[in-house]
């Protein structure tokens, strides 16, 4: 009888921890979609292009972060993984090296270029569709993909911004909170 009680307690604690982890990862987080001015001004970033399942982009985020740990990382995901087979999904992953009129550190740019990263500048835009999702755990990424893409696609279809969701830009700051 005491072993049954112990097993019940262990099972309850395990389920509670897992539930807390999934909730913390964003399971019930609100997905608020907005239109208006962009949260990111004109920016320059360094990136590597990858074709394949998005879950394999983590290594590029780690590489970009290892070269410039003080910089925010950014991912540009071109395809909806619920509609495009994993091996054909495309993304560009890297770091934001300057924003607005700020100049990029030339030495840092050289380190990225030596590691095989390319440089690209986004022009400033005036109107965008944005949303955010918490990036708190490893599970936040697939959870965000499953929850955010359908909501963005529905929003865009309803408000007739584009015929399809073509690019999802995902800036990530990897420093501890």
From TrEMBL:
Q: Which GO terms describe its biological process?
A: protein-DNA covalent cross-linking repair; reticulophagy
Q: Which domain of life is it from?
A: Eukaryota
Against InterPro entries, the record matches this protein to: Reg_factor_effector_dom_sf (IPR011256)
Query: Might you report a single GO cellular component term?
Result: autophagosome membrane
Keyword tags: Membrane, Transmembrane, Transmembrane helix
Residues crossing the lipid bilayer are 6-34
Per its record, how is this protein called by name?
Answer: Testis expressed 264, ER-phagy receptor a
Name the source organism. Answer: Hippocampus comes
Q: What is the lineage of its organism?
A: Eukaryota, Metazoa, Chordata, Craniata, Vertebrata
């Amino acid at each position: 009888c005491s072993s049954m009680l112990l097993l019940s307690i262990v099972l309850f604690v395990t389920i509670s921890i897992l539930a807390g982890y999934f909730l913390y990862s964003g399971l019930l987080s609100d997905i608020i979609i907005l239109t208006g001015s962009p949260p990111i001004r004109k920016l320059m970033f360094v990136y590597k292009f990858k074709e394949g399942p998005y879950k394999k982009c983590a290594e590029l985020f780690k590489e970009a972060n290892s070269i410039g740990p003080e910089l925010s990382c950014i991912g540009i995901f071109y395809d909806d993984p619920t509609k495009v087979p994993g091996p054909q999904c495309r993304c560009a992953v890297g770091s934001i090296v300057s924003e607005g009129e700020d100049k990029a550190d030339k030495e840092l740019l050289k380190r990225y270029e030596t590691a095989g990263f390319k440089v690209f500048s986004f022009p400033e835009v005036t109107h965008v569709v944005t949303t955010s999702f918490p990036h708190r755990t490893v599970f936040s990424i697939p959870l965000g993909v499953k929850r955010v893409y359908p909501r963005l696609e529905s929003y865009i279809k309803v408000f007739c911004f584009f015929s399809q969701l073509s690019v999802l830009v995902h800036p990530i700051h990897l420093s501890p909170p």
